[in-house]
Design brief:
mainly alpha, 25 helices
């Protein structure tokens, strides 16, 4: 018999072919359908279609950020980037009206440098950096009769309308208990489910993957509960109780990690308690009796104690603390101007600035004829250079394929749909499809292309599918060339910075544990920070490794560093649990710490990690 061998795609192509999976977010689909379409319809009815176009763009960009999570967290995730986009629109409008082509290119390049550096602060900041640049390009180039202030208000109205829908419409599970909590409850319950899964996998090869899944669940719950609020701390008893339920999961996660580190299987009943706690969080009910695990080992005794503490928290305990370490303004500024911020800022500025300059040259040479869409080129470049959407080559491939598909689809729709009614319906349908299309960049691009081209025609311009394809292919070429140019400083310095941050967090966690401090809250906060920075470092390494070989080679060996840091952090957790129970470490613990320190020392050319002096085994 002949045996077929599966095709081995290069990493950058494999990433482009990979799509996220999961259930259809029906609530987000409904919100998307009720966002842009009705706004455009209302604007057409009052005779101001161009205002409706700007509002629909705001709603579209907010819809791209409308991801699963808590209702409160959505305020920052949608509102922050929307404010940045409105500011960019206002800036771009007045810069486009007053500045020459050269000065405009310089101004937008400077804005891109700042926006790129700020984008290094996190996902919300990255979305804000994207929207401020898209808004600036649209404001400077889109021919609209409205003033800059009117455009900014219309943009905010569109994003605000989607945010209002997010806050007002119920989502699955939100009707159980307090209506204010929807994604928050499910996120906290997911932590207990992940703890149970890790206990089930203890002693098996799947334990490492389950521990990574637990870190992701804790990160998601922490983000869901830490959204903006009018008061600094949780304001209601129900919210403080939900915070207490999250905090009660931290010692359980610690004990489960220590058990997995020991590499021994645990009785099946050990996972029953966390699963009952997960059900109690989702249903906002009492836990009932919890099965007590065996107390034959320090980690099992820690698990039992954590279950008892969780039962008390579920029976009425309250807390305002999420055991996080908020970053100061100085730390945020240091990140924005540090290695990560500089690398991303310079690359974004170069790509955006070159695309603005090329677009201005083509625009003033009348290459566009009667269709002034030069802003499409820099706006497209922004999404192509955005690193959290995947490796550069993968983004370029997906963007080109998605644009061609979307433009061809729209050309067919434009030939048969009535105007403007059919186009408004098409805008609503595309808005509903965005939450599903975000699972793959090419699919998202195709849907957004159809939506944008429909808005262009609603605004009174002719069908422009051909120009949209040409603009996108030109933007892809610019980003591919500029993205692979030599940059000042060390290549992949953003990834290196992530590795250093993960090493520093592990060092701080280890120093606290070896000091035998009784401050459990500080220990849990340090542990969370260590695992969170590790997850971010692993993501950065994976993205760099999936680039074209010219960039991917800078990630050689970086995954080994992350693996060693993960084993170190797991060992520190096991040490913390053992010290709580026995008061001293064993030779197994100190020996493992010493071996990991030696492994890290062999990577000092990539990571400058200074570990505290290790204790002797007792």
């Amino acid at each position: 018999m002949f045996r077929t061998t599966p095709l081995a795609f290069p990493p950058w192509l494999a990433h482009a072919l990979r799509a996220q999976r999961g259930p259809v977010p029906w609530s987000a689909v409904v919100r998307g359908g009720l966002a842009g379409g009705p706004l455009v319809l209302a604007a057409v009815l009052v005779g101001r279609p161009t205002l409706g176009v700007v509002a629909a763009i705001g709603a579209m960009l907010a819809g791209i950020n409308d991801r699963p999570g808590g209702r409160r967290a959505s305020v920052g995730r949608l509102g922050g980037p929307a404010l940045a986009g409105a500011a960019g629109l206002l800036f771009g409008t007045y810069a486009g009206d007053q500045a020459s082509a050269l000065l405009l290119s310089l101004l937008l390049t400077g804005l891109a440098l700042i926006a790129g550096g700020v984008s290094a602060l996190g996902p919300v900041a990255s979305s804000a950096g994207t929207q401020v640049l898209v808004g600036a390009a649209v404001g400077a180039g889109m021919p609209l009769p409205e003033t800059g202030g009117e455009r900014a208000l219309a943009f905010l109205a569109g994003a605000g309308w989607l945010l209002a829908l997010r806050l007002a419409l119920p989502t699955p599970g939100s009707l159980a208990g307090d209506f204010r909590f929807d994604g928050e409850r499910d996120a906290v319950a997911g932590v207990y489910d992940a703890i149970a899964a890790l206990l089930d996998a203890s002693g098996s090869p799947a334990a490492t993957a389950r521990r990574v899944a637990l870190t992701a669940a804790l990160d998601h719950a922490q983000d869901a509960l830490a959204g903006p609020r009018l008061r600094r701390h949780a304001g209601s008893a129900a919210e403080r109780r939900l915070h207490a339920q999250y905090a009660a999961a931290l010692p359980l996660a610690e004990a489960a990690t220590a058990l997995a580190w020991a590499g021994e299987s645990v009785p099946g009943r050990a996972a029953q308690g966390p699963r009952r706690l997960a059900a109690a969080v989702r249903g906002d009910t009492h836990t009932g009796p919890l099965p007590a695990p065996s107390r034959t080992a320090p980690a099992l005794r820690a698990l039992d104690d954590a279950l008892l503490n969780a039962a008390e928290a579920f029976d009425g305990g309250e807390t305002r603390s999420l055991h996080t370490r908020p970053r100061s303004g100085t730390a945020l500024l240091r990140t924005a101007v540090g290695a990560r911020g500089r690398e991303y800022g310079i690359r974004v500025a170069l790509c955006f600035g070159v695309s603005v300059a090329v677009a201005q040259a083509l625009h003033h040479a009348h290459w566009y004829g009667a269709h002034e869409h030069w802003y499409w080129l820099p706006a497209t470049t922004v999404f192509l250079v955005k690193p959290d959407l995947g490796p550069l080559a993968s983004r370029v491939l997906c963007r080109a394929a998605g644009t061609v598909l979307g433009a061809l689809l729209f050309a067919g729709f434009a030939a048969v749909l009535p105007r403007p009614d059919g186009l408004i319906v098409l805008v609503a349908v595309c808005g509903a499809l965005i939450p599903v299309a975000t699972r793959h960049f090419a699919t998202q691009t195709a849907v957004v292309t159809v939506l944008v081209l429909a808005l262009v025609m609603v605004g009174g311009e002719p069908q422009a599918s051909g120009a949209r394809i040409a603009e996108t292919l030109l933007a892809c070429g610019i980003v591919l060339v500029v993205g692979h140019l030599p940059m000042p400083g060390r290549r992949a310095s953003g990834m290196q910075a992530r590795l250093t941050e993960a090493g520093d967090a592990a060092q701080a966690y280890l120093a606290h544990v070896l000091s035998e401090s009784g401050d459990r809250a500080a220990r849990w906060a340090l542990r969370r920070e260590a695992y969170r920075t590790l997850a971010e470092a692993r993501t950065a390494v994976a993205l760099t490794s999936a680039e074209l070989p010219a960039l991917a080679r800078h990630a050689d060996g970086a995954d080994e560093i992350v693996a060693v840091l993960e084993r170190l952090t797991d060992t520190i957790t096991a040490c913390a649990v053992h010290l709580d129970d026995m008061g001293r470490l064993t030779r197994q613990h100190t020996g493992q710490l010493s071996r990991l320190a030696q492994e890290l020392s062999s990577h000092r050319t990539r990571l400058d990690l200074r570990l505290p002096r290790l204790p002797l085994a007792g």
